[in-house]
Amino acid sequence: MSKEYKPAHNYLLLLPAESSEMSSGGLYLPETARNKINEGIIVATGPTAGAFSPGQTVVFKQHSEYVVNIEKKKHVVVSTDDIILFTDKPEA
Fold first, then answer.
1. What is the rounded average pLDDT of the residues 26-50?
2. Residue 53 forms part of a structural domain
């Protein structure tokens, strides 16, 4: 059974971009050694999220996210105040 989660206020629910599991030299990196990527695709928006909509890609401030697991997938929740860059149009 699937639940539909909606962020409160001006928060965004994101599916984070994945960091590379392999270094440029071909070595596998543990999750703790990977570069943290502060980018994701918006899955849902809060009622006061303004110009943001599902499907847009955003870049957010480091250490500003809340990590949650929804249906065994890692998601992050960030405030619209912590968004640094975003795309104009949702991805197709």
1. 79
2. yes
